[in-house]
Design the sequence.
C-alpha cells in the first residue's frame, strides 16, 4: 500500500515525507518529483521510491494503476510567485492536478493538494475560506483554479481537500533561493553581520507559519472531512517582528535597512488566516508561535550549517 507525495523533494514536501515515514504506518511512500525546484539533499534519509517525471506529463495509470493507494498528497507546482509566463504557470499547475483527479476519480482514496493564501489577493483582516477569491498574480490564479477543480470533484463524491498554506518557513527551504521565506533571508543576512533588508518600513503583516505545523495540518486533511482549509498560525506579524526575534536569537543588534518594493503591483501587504474551520474540522492546532518557531529554526540552521 502506497502513499504518494508529489513535490516530495521540495521544502514542505520533504518534511511531509519525513513525517509520514516517522509515523510508521507500514505504508510505502513514493515521491513524484522532476527536481525542477526540489533538491535531493532534502531526501537524504528517505526510504522509499522516486519517480522523476513532471506531474503534468506522468501516465498515472501506467505507474500506479495496479497499486493499492492509501492517499495522494499533491504539493508539486511552480512555486515562484514572480513567474510572469501565464501559460507555463497555469498549464503546469492546473494540468498536473487534473491528471491526478482523473486517476483518482473511481478509486476512493483521499487527495490532499496544496492551495495558497495567494488566492485571497489584496485583503485586509482575517482571510476566510468562504470569501471570494481575488488573486493578484498568476500563481494565485492557478491555485484558485485548483480550488475550483477540487470543488467539482467533491460534488462528484471524491475525497479531495485543499490546504491553503500561508507564509511557511523552516528547515529544507534553503534550495529555494530568492523564494525562500523572509525568515531565512533575514537570518542569512544577519548571521553574516549585515543589516537586514526589508521593503519600505517593514510594516507589512504576514501570517508566518512553521513548516512542522503545516505538515501536521496537511496530514490531518487526509483523514478528515473533505473541503478547503486555511493552514497558518492565525496571527499576523511584521517583518520588524522577525528582525527583533532574530536579533535576540543571534545575540545581535542590527537595525533594518528599508528598501523600495519592486513587486508592489501584486505584493500582499497583509496575510492572516482564519483557522477556526481548520481547528473545528481537522483538529488543527499550531504548536509554534513566531518566537518559538524562529528559535527552533535558528537552532536547526546552526546545527546543519545551512547559513
Sequence:
Amino acid at each position: 500500500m502506497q502513499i504518494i507525495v508529489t513535490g516530495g523533494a521540495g521544502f514542505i514536501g520533504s518534511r511531509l515525507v519525513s513525517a509520514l515515514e516517522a509515523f510508521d504506518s507500514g505504508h510505502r511512500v513514493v515521491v513524484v518529483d522532476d527536481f525542477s525546484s526540489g533538491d535531493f539533499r532534502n531526501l537524504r534519509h528517505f526510504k522509499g521510491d522516486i519517480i522523476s517525471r513532471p506531474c503534468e506529463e506522468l501516465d498515472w495509470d501506467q505507474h500506479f494503476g495496479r497499486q493499492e493507494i492509501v492517499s495522494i498528497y499533491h504539493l508539486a507546482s511552480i512555486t515562484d510567485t514572480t513567474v510572469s509566463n501565464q501559460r507555463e504557470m497555469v498549464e503546469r499547475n492546473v494540468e498536473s492536478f487534473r491528471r491526478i483527479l482523473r486517476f483518482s476519480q473511481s478509486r476512493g482514496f483521499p487527495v490532499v493538494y496544496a492551495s495558497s493564501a495567494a488566492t485571497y489577493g489584496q485583503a485586509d483582516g482575517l482571510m476566510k475560506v468562504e470569501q471570494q477569491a481575488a488573486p493578484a498574480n498568476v500563481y494565485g490564479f492557478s491555485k484558485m483554479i485548483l480550488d475550483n477543480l477540487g470543488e467539482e470533484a467533491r460534488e462528484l463524491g471524491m475525497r479531495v481537500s485543499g490546504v491553503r498554506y500561508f507564509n511557511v518557513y523552516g528547515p529544507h527551504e534553503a534550495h529555494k533561493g530568492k523564494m525562500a521565506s523572509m525568515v531565512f533571508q533575514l537570518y542569512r543576512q544577519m548571521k553574516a553581520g549585515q543589516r537586514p533588508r526589508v521593503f519600505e518600513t517593514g510594516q507589512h503583516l504576514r501570517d508566518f507559519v512553521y513548516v512542522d505545523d503545516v505538515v501536521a495540518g496537511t496530514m490531518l486533511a487526509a483523514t478528515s472531512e473533505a473541503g478547503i482549509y486555511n493552514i497558518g498560525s492565525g496571527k499576523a506579524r511584521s517583518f520588524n517582528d522577525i528582525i527583533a526575534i532574530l536579533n535576540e536569537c543571534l545575540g545581535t543588534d542590527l537595525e533594518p535597512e528599508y528598501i523600495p518594493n519592486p513587486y508592489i503591483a501584486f505584493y500582499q501587504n497583509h496575510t492572516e488566516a482564519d483557522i477556526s474551520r481548520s481547528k473545528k474540522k481537522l483538529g488543527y492546532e499550531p504548536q509554534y508561535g513566531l518566537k518559538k518557531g524562529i528559535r527552533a529554526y535558528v537552532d536547526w540552521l546552526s546545527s546543519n550549517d545551512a547559513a
Summary: Residues 169-206+236-271+292-303 form a domain with the UDP-galactose 4-epimerase; domain 1 fold (CATH 3.90.25.10).
